[in-house]
Design goal:
- 44% of the residues lie in helices and 20% in strands.
- Strands 1, 2, 3, 4, 5, 6, 7, 8, 9 and 10 form a 10-stranded mixed sheet that branches.
- It has 13 helices and 10 strands.
- With 347 residues, the protein is of the alpha/beta class.
- The chain starts with 7 loop residues before the first strand and ends with a helix.
- Helix 9 packs across helix 11.
- Strand 2, helix 2 and strand 3 form a beta-alpha-beta unit.
Length: 347
């Protein structure tokens, strides 16, 4: 049955915290969507620059398209929650303020969403590619992340139609556009003052996703290289407790073995394994005895919570690589992490 059609086709939330130096590029990349898109610029208590004024400027200059929302600082997750609470679009996407979208891919995305509406087939998750844009001075490295090995292109599918599950190949916030009402139905609420909640944004709604559509376009451009980015290795070490909190919340979210759809269950187990390996790697890279103990405690937490999931993660390809014994085992694990880091272009 068709949902009551809101005014907008797509709502895009842009969490902004002291983002004045780069948020214009993000907003400008979304303006070509015109009246079919609402751009929710969420000023998350910015105090060090004129982020709030820029948000208000765009609301004045583009009434009915841009909306400035000001709130006390609550962190990235809180800004996403605010965006979702205020969204009037049939679909909802998050674009971080230092990232942007590709113009041609954006047009294809909107055409696809309009097709869903015209044919009364509102899929729960539209999946698109993203591109790592790693910039360091004159060095510019691009890495496309595509999903052709996992899903067929341009047809409505269920998890049963997933072609294969590849360990470490995860759907990220950058690749998903969710049906807004589906997100509300699963009561998604991200924690305040916590980094790395984008994993929760993707992971927790997955059992509510019944229909999937993969559009093979390079839509999201994910900027890597800005000083202070949360995904920098230095900051991930500093914020390891927040990474571990997100990791544990993913463990607690579902009894994965109660999920009947095999492809979905295997994918969620793979996603959990990947995040647990990342948590472990960050502890290893820090070479801090306190963090090494935290990583060991994480594995104990999983074992006590769900021994079956622990065995699956512990003896999976990635999990086993992170649990090689002794200092030399940790050294090999860090080397594997560094090779993946260089190949994939992250951090």
């Amino acid at each position: 049955m068709r949902e009551n059609k809101p005014m907008k086709l797509l709502s895009v939330a842009i969490p902004c915290y002291n983002s004045a130096a780069y948020m214009r590029n993000c907003i400008e990349s979304l303006l070509p969507g015109g009246d079919e898109v609402e751009i929710l610029i969420v000023d998350d208590g910015s105090t060090k620059d004129n982020t709030a004024e820029i948000a208000d400027e765009y609301e004045r200059n583009y009434p009915g398209i841009c909306r400035a929302i000001h709130q006390e600082n609550g962190g990235h997750g809180c800004a996403v929650n605010t965006g979702l609470a205020n969204a009037s679009g049939l679909y909802f996407k998050v674009v971080d303020s230092d990232d942007w979208v590709d113009a041609e891919a954006y047009a294809r995305v909107l055409e696809t969403l309009k097709k869903f509406v015209a044919e009364d087939t509102l899929v729960d998750m539209l999946l698109t590619n993203y591109v790592y844009e790693k910039i360091d001075g004159d060095y510019h490295h691009q890495r496309r992340m595509i999903y052709t090995l996992l899903f067929d292109q341009e047809r409505i599918m269920s998890w049963h139609d997933m072609k294969r599950n590849i360990k470490g190949f995860t759907i990220l916030m950058h690749s998903v556009t969710y049906r807004t009402q589906m997100l509300r139905d699963c009561h998604l609420e991200l924690p305040k003052h916590t980094f790395y909640v984008d994993n929760l944004f993707v992971y927790e709604p997955l059992p509510f996703v019944k229909t999937i559509y993969y559009l093979n376009v390079d839509f999201y451009r994910y900027y890597i290289g800005r000083d202070g980015q949360s995904v920098s290795e230095k900051n991930m070490i500093k914020r390891i407790d927040q990474q571990l909190y997100v990791n544990k919340r993913m463990v607690d979210a579902y009894d994965l073995w109660a999920i009947e759809e095999e492809h979905l269950r295997e994918y969620m187990l793979s996603y959990l394994e990947t995040i647990t390996v990342v948590s472990t790697c960050i502890a290893y890279v820090s070479n801090d005895p306190v963090n090494l103990k935290k990583a060991k405690d994480l594995w104990k937490y999983i074992k006590n919570k769900d021994p079956k999931t622990y065995r699956h993660l512990r003896w999976g390809v990635l999990g086993h690589a992170m649990n090689l014994p002794g200092r030399f085992g940790r050294h090999l694990s860090v080397r594997a992490y560094k090779i993946s880091q260089k190949f994939m272009g992250f951090n």
